[in-house]
What does this fold into?
Amino acid sequence: MRKIIEFSVGEVSRRAGVPISTIHFYEEKGLIRSLRNKANHRRYTSDVLRKLSIIKVAQKTGIPLKEIKEALNSVPDGEKVNKRHWQRLSRNWQADLDARIDQLTNLRNLLEGCIGCGCLSLTDCWMLNPGDKLGRDGPGPRLLELEE
It folds into this structure.
């Protein structure tokens, strides 16, 4: 029988390179779980270290915490995320990442064409305000998504 190793929040913080406050935040949001010992101190099993790594990688790619939580919920409690889990999780995120890469590439390409024009016009800018769409909607700031 394998002995379950438990870590304090400070040990998890040092091993994962994540501040204690972040660990508490992730736990509050339901991304990770802790146990309580007899003194009511939090204790974490080693599977949390791998989950924290997954969270950090996913966040760096721009995946929202809500989606990360949903993905991690598919891994049974106490079970370390293994290669099979990671392949499933990453495969599910790839389509979203591909779409965001395409959107950012389009934006980058539009910016390259816009930077040199020098018009700075709110009424004539084909990229930010084509046909003065913002002016027709009334005063105040607007957020437009680029039309494809």
